[in-house]
Specification:
Shape: extended
Largest sheet: 4 strands, antiparallel
Helix content: 25-40%
Radius of gyration: 21 Å
Structural class: alpha+beta
Amino acid sequence: MKDNQPELLHEAERLTQESSPGMEAQPDGEIRYWHLPEVDWPVAERGVRVVKTVRTEHQRRVIIREKDGHRTKSKTTMSQHSTNFYATNFELGSISPLSIHELSRSRWRIDTEVFQTITTDCHLKHPAVHQTTALVLLTMIRFLAYTLSLVFYHRQVRSPPKMRDLS
């Protein structure tokens, strides 16, 4: 959920102003999450469940400083924060808020990999640039086939056993 649904996003932000009810430590950081079981979505004329996550990743970075014409390298740990909102019609009693986060992140990874592969490995720009129906159709078929193969890979091969049971 981004700025494409401003009313829903604003309401979710308002309802998650308080401290987060959940936190999970990870090897390289932590995830804080909020679960809103019923948020009114006036545009769709229904309520949806919203999960907000704030992911903090600790990353080691090399900093190069120049002093008296000499460069020195030093390592420092930096924290990177990312906030995501997910709206769903899943009954979250049966699916944990962190599972919703994991499902959504895997979908994002799949989309990113598909577009990266199509633009670099297949040497294609946006299909509309080529202007012929046949090429557009073939590109769409390749895009769909590659996306489905990545969905299978991420959901069945790379996912933890608890996530495989959901698909």
